[in-house]
Amino acid sequence: MTISQAVGNVCTASALNTKKQQTANSVENEVIYLPNTDCAIKSQAFLSAFTSYRVGGAAQWFVAPRNLEALQASLKYAKERDLRVTTLGAGSNLLVSDGGISGLVIATRHLRFSHFDPQTGQLTVAAGESIPSLAWEAASLGWQGLEWAVGIPGTVGGAVVMNAGAHNSCIADMLVSAQVLSPDGTLETLTPDQLGYSYRTSLLQGGDRIVTQATLQLTP
């Protein structure tokens, strides 16, 4: 089942189970379970464990969903409690303040899925997939297009947002489409033109939409 197909059965806030009374103010070691998902929102999670520099303070709330259903439930929880949402990919080269991050930090690294169609050369991958790993895998199978990404740490989602690139190539050159999730839980499929790509930028930067998956065009 693809991430797109995992869209059903979104949790409602009224169905949330908590170990303690649900409030927008986190306390140490509070865990909020989202039923019908594999998702648990945790309070005061130290982000040093999720960045390459291994430094930084705690997230007020932290969640690492493994599928679209859990991601939607997490966004719904944040929206109904007016929590600011910060998205975290691989955490590569990211410095987090010792003061931490308020609101809900959503780590997308566990959104994992890939499907390759050898007839079209199109590779559809979830936002949490490692882009250098994909580059190595594609090359080992004789497919070109991702060679520039071998030395770039990070995830597909982050690469799509910032238009990652190297050696005169970038992800915008091979992106067919990106699926993004809005705070209200709706999904959109956007083309590179709609994403407004420029050098290391896109319209997704500074926005509130989260990349869930991308389709890339490879060549034999």
UniProtKB/TrEMBL annotation:
- GO molecular function (one): UDP-N-acetylmuramate dehydrogenase activity
Which residues belong to any copy of the FAD-binding PCMH-type domain?
54-220
One GO BP annotation here?
peptidoglycan biosynthetic process
Tell me the domain of life.
Bacteria
Its EC number(s): 1.3.1.98
Q: Which N-terminal residues, if any, form the signal peptide?
A: none
Q: Which GO terms describe its cellular component?
A: cytosol
List UniProt keywords, sorted A-Z.
Oxidoreductase
Coiled-coil region list:
none
**InterPro entries attached to this UniProt entry:** FAD-bd_PCMH (IPR016166), FAD-bd_PCMH-like_sf (IPR036318), FAD-bd_PCMH_sub1 (IPR016167), FAD-bd_PCMH_sub2 (IPR016169), MurB (IPR003170), Oxid_FAD_bind_N (IPR006094)
Question: Does the record carry Oxidoreductase as a key word?
Answer: yes
What protein name applies here? UDP-N-acetylmuramate dehydrogenase
Provide the organism lineage as a comma list.
Answer: Bacteria, Bacillati, Cyanobacteriota, Cyanophyceae, Nostocales
